[in-house]
Amino acid sequence: xxxLIRTELLKQRATRSFVAGVVAAPVLGAFITxxxxxxxxxxxxxxxxxxxxxxxxxxxxSVITLIAVVLGVLGMAGEYRHQTVTTTFLATPRRRDVVVxxxxxxxxxxxxxxxxxxxxxxxxxxxxxxxxxxxVVVDSEVASIAAGAVLSASLYGAxxxxxxxxxxxxxxxxxxxxxxLLAVEGIVTDVFQRSAxxxxxxxxxxxxxxxxxxxxxxxxxxxAAAVFAAYVLAFxxxxxxxxxxxxxx
Amino acid sequence: xxxxxxxxxxxxxxxxxxxxxxxxELTAGTVTGLLGPNGAGKTTTLRMLLGLVTPTSGTxxxxxxxxxxxxxxxxxVGAVLEASSxxxxxxxxxxxxxxxxxxxxxAQRANAALEQVGMAxxxxxxxxxxxxxxxxxxxLAAALLGEPDVLIxxxxxxxxxxxxxxWLRTFIRGQADTGxxxxxxxxxxxxxxxxxxxxxxxDRGRLVTSASLAELTTQPDVVVRxxxxxxxxxxLSHLGxxxxxxxxxxxxxxxxxxxxxxxxxxxxxVVYEMRLEQADLEDVFFSLTAASEGAMT
Lengths: 249, 297
Prior knowledge:
The complex is a heterodimer. Chain A is mostly helical. Chain A is built from 10 helices and no strands. The relative contact order of chain A is 0.14. Chain B is built from 11 helices and 13 strands. Chain B has helices spanning 42-49, 73-76, 92-102, 108-116, 132-144, 162-177, 189-193, 213-217, 229-238, 257-267, 281-296; strands spanning 4-13, 16-26, 31-35, 57-62, 77-80, 150-154, 181-186, 198-203, 206-212, 221-225, 242-246, 249-253, 273-277. Chain B starts with a strand and ends with a helix. The longest helix of chain B has 16 residues, at 162-177.
């Protein structure tokens, strides 16, 4: 399995879109922090305060997770698009190992992107807050948000692989992801806003991991992580099963 | 034991039977041409052999083992199934290193395989800028990564220019000379006839014949041009020789120029021309597939 994970990471390094995605993570982490802090105290925005550091760490998560899930889709559905799935399955005829290797490799890449974005955000936010005279406290909440940002990017990366394996068409898979994240779940949440189940939906659980959900009614970060991981596992199991039995023609 | 063995291999897609109970043995160390028109079932057969398509029934094995059960498949079988199995944004060397890594082969094999197909100077180029011929060579390099005993090439000359076809022919013979078993599918009969030892012909999913090239094309016809063609035809027919006549030309099959010559001498016929006409693979192919078509109707 280590060999297959290494192979998948090699594929990512050899593909420009993946390299660009990973490089973009710290750039976005820093840029979003600059944008948020630069606007603080202006045009009705709250001024920088005790919560600003933890907000900076969690703010890039929505963008980073979107990139991670798209890269996951490209990593799996791209094999079908470019027909490299033929050579991939010839080199590794045990298809389950291929899918598991991809899931793990993209989870690692997502985690790296999350880590880089959090580190970049912290590197900008810390000195900025000190300059503004706001104390930076590294407490359990900071640790939780940072861990949530890393874990959510990791799980979204794996989710992308599972969706790519399910749908095989990368445009369709990316469309489904964006439609769900930007429209479908929002509409369902609006319609059933008084129901508890909306907090258990995938995007809501993803946001709760980085403290960006409804704190009063939403899931706690550990529960949210477990729920989101369960979604990823369910999709991954179905995707693996389908991949085993589909003809490659 | 046969290097490749198919037993009642069948694939159905709904009501369509793409491959129909094909049973076949291919001996190690031969170059086999898998021939048939488009839609004959060649590609589906090869994909079932390689574990990419699940047979509806039957088995396809290498030395008794299915492809997915091989310990090190890349060291046993190398395959080129289509000219476009590449990520266009990757460099040639990276494509091969990825496959080498997946197959558990040393990374150095990527450079060696590129050199084998004459592509070493293009190692750092991105595949998106490659011509079809270069992609075919890169595909062959990928197939050679594990230095396999068996090479399977599906329509490898598709889209190649004459120089590329010549290179490919030399390449295939070179691989056979190293003792490899090579299976090359094609619908370009004339091109394959110069390369193969053994011929398998498929038509509409069925195996039409499996024989050596010599068996299929042996015993040339004796063709005689004479103003007394009808007398000659009548006499040869009387002797039980399979013979046809058209205008002043008599074509006798299953006989020798010596036997025909003696008949001509005995009858004292005037002869303008006498020659041997070797039926080429294309003739054999069309006669066999026509017979297959007739048998089905």
